[in-house]
Amino acid sequence: MSDKYEVAVVIDQNRCSGCGLCIKICPSDTISLKNGKAHVTGESSLSCGHCMAICPESAISINSLDRNAIDFNTFDLNKKWLPYGTTDINELAQIIASRRSCRNFKSSAVERPLIEDLVRFGKLAPSGSNCQKWTFTCLTSREQVVHLAISIGSCYKKLNKMANNVFLRYALKAFGKPDLYNYYRDYYDKVNDAVHQMENNGRDLLFHGATACIIIGSEPGASCPGEDALLATQNILLTAHAMGIGTCLIGFAVKALVRDKSIQKRLGIPEQETVYSVIALGYPDEKYQRITGRKVVIERYL
Ligand SMILES: Cc1cc2nc3c(=O)[nH]c(=O)nc-3n(C[C@H](O)[C@H](O)[C@H](O)COP(=O)(O)O)c2cc1C
């Protein structure tokens, strides 16, 4: 059995009433009833904590859980579990619909305790097999964000130089590799302008003047690393809005980090990790009047 499924469930036999709720809720048959009490009998566990959460006698603990995972810096979390259907749906819906990509940030820095709390929200997301192999690399100052923007700018300058080669574009396309051709068509001018603006006017069209940034990646070995990282990302986007912080996903930065591993290395992110999202953060310098909608897309109800 690999370490990732190591059993860390501990059952206090003096407290256990033998109700069996932990057995019913366990997704990996880790627990069974012996002599009227719950015992750890399985050889693997997701360490998901469902048994611990459901036990009416508080008889179960999970040794592998981070004790500080739900202690936030900037507010006291009410640790009572919210029963299904008891949340104010209007407030939740308003947050989901009010979150917008922020492209106008104030110059004030986002405080470190707040960034740490956002990472905690990210880590509360679900992950495939509960592997939690995501990694969070935080840039906590505008200077660090600018440094990253400069590295990314250099990466795109090289890419634009390549894409400007008409022979190469068409040759790759003819060999079934249309990426460079498509990139030239869709982004070449935009990227040229962004690099020019950054170098000549100090205008930041990449990070929009963000004063902080969270880069979410994954260590090797996750079953669904991209999905895990993006679910953590969405938690951060929504909770940041509730905490007064604006966010913007920067897909251009992700592409550059994946393309040029030396940028990742300079950030101290080991080579074996893969980056899936880059979130620009800052205090928003924009205010909307209303919630708008979305495009019409395909929906199927079978
Ligand atoms: C995967 C992804 C990558 C994105 N990359 C960028 C980006 O590089 N720069 C940017 O300004 N916005 C970026 N965005 C923001 C989208 O343009 C934005 O989400 C979309 O226009 C909808 O607007 P809203 O987020 O305000 O609802 C990205 C969004 C996603 C989901």
The number of distinct β-strands equals: 8
Q: Please write the string of helix (H) and strand (E) elements.
A: EHEEHEHHEHHHEHEHHE
Per CATH, what is the topology of the largest domain?
NADH Oxidase
Strand order of the largest sheet: 5-6-8-7
Assign the structural class, choosing from mainly alpha, mainly beta, alpha/beta, alpha+beta, or little secondary structure.
alpha+beta
Residue stretches low in confidence (pLDDT < 50, at least 5 long) are none
Determine the CATH superfamily of the largest domain: NADH Oxidase
* Tally of contiguous helical segments: 10
Q: What is the CA-atom radius of gyration, in angstroms?
A: 23 Å
The main sheet comes to: 4 strands, antiparallel
The percent range for helix content is 25-40%
Bound molecules: flavin mononucleotide
- Strand share of the residues? 5-15%
CA distance, first residue to last residue: 40 Å
Any idea of the CATH class of the largest domain?
A: Alpha Beta
Give me the CATH architecture of the largest domain, please.
3-Layer(aba) Sandwich
